[in-house]
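Task 17 of the worksheet. Students: predict the tertiary structure of the chain below and write it out as structure tokens. Keep your answer in the requested format; marks are given for formatting as well as content.
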Amino acid sequence: MIYQYMDSKAQEYAAFNPHRVRKLFALLQPHLKLQSYNIHIIGTNGKGSTGRFIAQSIAESGYKVLHFTSPHIFDFRERFYTHDGIVSLESLIKAHVFLQDFSFIQEASYFEYATFLALVLAQESDFLVMEAGVGGEFDSTSVLHYDMTIFTRIGFDHKEMLGDTLEAIARTKLRAAQGVIFTHFQEQATLSLLQDIADIMPNDTQHLGDNLKRIPIQHITYLQLDDIQQSAIIRYATTYNIPYFLQENLSLAYLALQHIGIPLLQNRLALRGRFEIFRHNIVLDVGHNIMAAHAALAAAKHYFKNQPFKLIYNSYKEKEIREILKAFAHDIEEIIIFMVDNPRIVDIIEMENMLQTLAIPYKFFCPNTIKLDVLPKNLIESANILKENTNYMVFGSFSLVEHFLLWFHNECEK
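Model answer:
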């Protein structure tokens, strides 16, 4: 029921309209009973882990919480994490049925509808942690009042929607700020905008409507190197062997948690694909831009103790593929392009041309589930893709991690 509906939403692809979600929320808002402390996570990299560190900490302290994140790896329910774990199918269907009572809701896009599902599911929550999608001021998550805004690292992504300069991208993200602000390390262009953030804020009535005015910005707290050296951070990082970029995200989350009087979580991060040590010689990390690639490469070199490793990779076509390949080129034995059945994945001929131009050793792996009219060169057999005495990093799109894990569980664990 809910899965078929969301599939139809994804297929119909409602064109981006910054005014539609505000109009729909204005109609839906009177029917919602939200009394939560609201936290907005905005940025390019690290939103999922930062939000989950916060949500798990809140849950471990005995409060009710809803963490809305995206995208998911296996199941749409993964986008809705609660104090009881991933939301139950029963609760998700109940929220879906609630929304279907409103005829206007059919206008919502896939992400807008997912956002509204989160708001319905959060009605009894003490805390609501909302992760923005592609942007800031026009993102569907920005319709709420937020007590706190957390900016993770802001870099280049979704240039076709946000602009082709870092300043343009940062501006649209920062213009969603409300309440108290906590920010990760940022480039100078972003820091300059933060220092004069009042001057770039939009007119509420123009952008949101009379009934959806923002909570005024309060003070800004900047992450410092000393914050990463706190005993609580070091203890957690040592216990779970998390890489430095996740320690940074944990430190940012801890700053926010201290503000609301919540202690840091004690349990392992419950989020797949964030430098996940899947096997002793296999790590998984979702990433789609050059900033994420550099962080993942540094973490992999440290984890594998500077020993050689192979990169298992694939990406959506609109991402910084050439730059990512160049970043890994001198530190890997070879690249294995794990083929993925998804229309957004880059064309295999284009991928092969890039690899040849960059002179990177490569192979293609085609799972049995993938049907191709044209097979690429350098195909590798299933029995030869993973070796016990070889190190591997699976890095790329969420679809890559999903397909790799499904293939591994179906083929390698038999």
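Marker's comment: The CA atoms of residues 198 and 217 lie 8 Å apart. The radius of gyration is 21 Å.
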